[in-house]
């Protein structure tokens, strides 16, 4: 029996999502109709994943779904927003029902976890490409931004970085590590955890925030440029997993942490005046952000230090850039 575009939407993307009261009209009409809470501002983020660029052919459909939702929820987290709705643009080479089962299950799992509803999208035939737009709320005026860092602010990352890059290096046969460590880092490449709760807790505490998708150096530089400040980072303080430290030499581990990307931890700044509140909030929080340095007044200047001496990365590339 022929299985067409509208069967596909009905079977996989219409009924199985959490139903939110603020969705007046969801999947099925020309547009979704949504009710914003009073006093809230809407935060919207879009990210695309392309086969061969963001994931390879071995990547399970469930992981692709998880990751495309997670990277968008990570952008909402970096804005301090509470996630509410997702839309999905799906371009598929064929309507493979096994793939669609895996994909829609992966999407449902993450939507259930974060209480998000799929509210619409688009389905087309072509090279495998998945795009999600995430919508969330913040109380008006409280969104975290890239442009608020000030000299003297403390610089934090929310958790271990570099693991996803190490997994990719193993997958691409650039290095080898033990099976047990590979399983752990592959989980971080395939199923990143967006720091959604932490992001909301940082509203009215952090002076700036960004999520780390392209690599710490590349993404921190966006904060420095937007805020017209510099930063000093002590590379010995970078949080590294056991899988990382037991698998590669110390300098290589630092390079993964600085520039490999795909981590989806938050990088943020906290003014001295908010440090006490921050420590109190963190005492009750499962995430344990690590202080890696401080913001300076040297505009657009990132200084990497090891034992108080300048430290230069062995890698030429600073972070992921699609066109260089
Ligand atoms: N094609 C585009 N049209 C309009 N805005 C874009 C486009 N591509 C990226 N942007 C915007 O440029 C900014 C930086 O994008 P990006 O580096 O992808 O951010 P992120 O790492 O948070 O996904 C964002 O505000 C994004 O919305
Ligand atoms: C097959 C494969 N090649 C390379 C990578 C590494 N990679 C691809 S895109 C990317 C950076 C994040 O993607 P981007 O589209 O720049 O996300 P954004 O910054 O917009 O959130 C990284 C580290 C990967 N995950 N899989
Ligand atoms: Mg983007």
TrEMBL record:
Gene3D superfamilies listed in its UniProt record: PurM-like C-terminal domain (3.90.650.10), PurM-like, N-terminal domain (3.30.1330.10)
Single GO molecular function: ATP binding
EC number(s) given by UniProt: 2.7.4.16
InterPro entries reported in the protein's UniProt record: PurM-like_C_dom, PurM-like_C_sf, PurM-like_N, PurM-like_N_sf, ThiL-like
Amino-acid positions noted as binding Mg(2+) 5 in the UniProt annotation, renumbered to this chain: 214
Pathway: Cofactor biosynthesis; thiamine diphosphate biosynthesis; thiamine diphosphate from thiamine phosphate: step 1/1
Residues that hold Mg(2+) 4 according to the record: 30, 75
GO terms, biological process: thiamine biosynthetic process; thiamine diphosphate biosynthetic process
Start and end residues of each PurM-like C-terminal domain: 150-298
TM region positions: none
Binding-site residues for ATP, renumbered to this chain: 121-122, 146, 213
Catalytic activity: thiamine phosphate + ATP = thiamine diphosphate + ADP
Pfam families, sorted: AIRS, AIRS_C
Keyword line: ATP-binding, Kinase, Magnesium, Metal-binding, Nucleotide-binding, Thiamine biosynthesis, Transferase
Domain of life: Bacteria
Residues given in the record as Mg(2+) 2 binding sites: 47, 75
Binding site for Mg(2+) 1: 46-47, 122
Similarity remark: Belongs to the thiamine-monophosphate kinase family.
Name of this protein: Thiamine-monophosphate kinase
Gene: thiL
């Amino acid at each position: 029996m022929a299985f067409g575009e509208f069967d596909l939407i009905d079977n996989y993307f219409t009924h199985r999502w959490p139903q939110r009261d603020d969705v007046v009209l969801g999947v099925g009409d020309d547009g979704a109709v949504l009710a914003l809470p009073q006093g809230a501002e809407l935060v919207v983020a879009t990210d695309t994943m392309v086969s061969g660029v963001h994931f390879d052919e071995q990547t399970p459909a469930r992981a692709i779904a998880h990751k495309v939702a997670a990277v968008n929820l990570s952008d909402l987290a970096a804005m301090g927003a509470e996630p509410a709705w997702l839309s999905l643009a799906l371009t598929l080479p064929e309507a493979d029902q096994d793939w669609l089962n895996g994909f829609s299950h992966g999407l449902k799992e993450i939507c259930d976890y974060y209480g998000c509803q799929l509210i619409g999208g688009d389905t087309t035939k072509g090279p495998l490409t998945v795009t999600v737009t995430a919508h969330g709320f913040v109380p008006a005026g409280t969104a975290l931004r890239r442009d608020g860092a000030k000299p003297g602010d403390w610089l934090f990352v929310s958790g271990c970085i570099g693991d996803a890059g190490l997994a990719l290096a193993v997958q691409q046969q650039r290095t080898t590590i033990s099976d047990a460590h590979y399983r752990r880092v592959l989980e971080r490449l395939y199923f990143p955890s967006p720091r959604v709760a932490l992001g909301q807790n940082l509203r009215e505490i952090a002076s700036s925030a960004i999520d780390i998708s392209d690599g710490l150096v590349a993404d921190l530089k966006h904060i420095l440029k937007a805020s017209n400040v510099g930063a000093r980072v002590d590379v010995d303080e970078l949080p590294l997993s056991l899988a990382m430290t037991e698998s590669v030499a110390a300098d290589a581990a630092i390079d993964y942490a600085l520039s490999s990307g795909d981590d989806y931890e938050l990088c943020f700044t906290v003014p001295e005046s908010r440090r006490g509140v921050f420590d109190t909030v963190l005492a009750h929080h499962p995430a344990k952000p690590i202080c890696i340095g401080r913001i300076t007044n040297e505009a657009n200047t990132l200084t990497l230090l090891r034992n108080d001496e300048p430290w230069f990365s062995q890698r030429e590339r600073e972070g992921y850039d699609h066109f260089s």
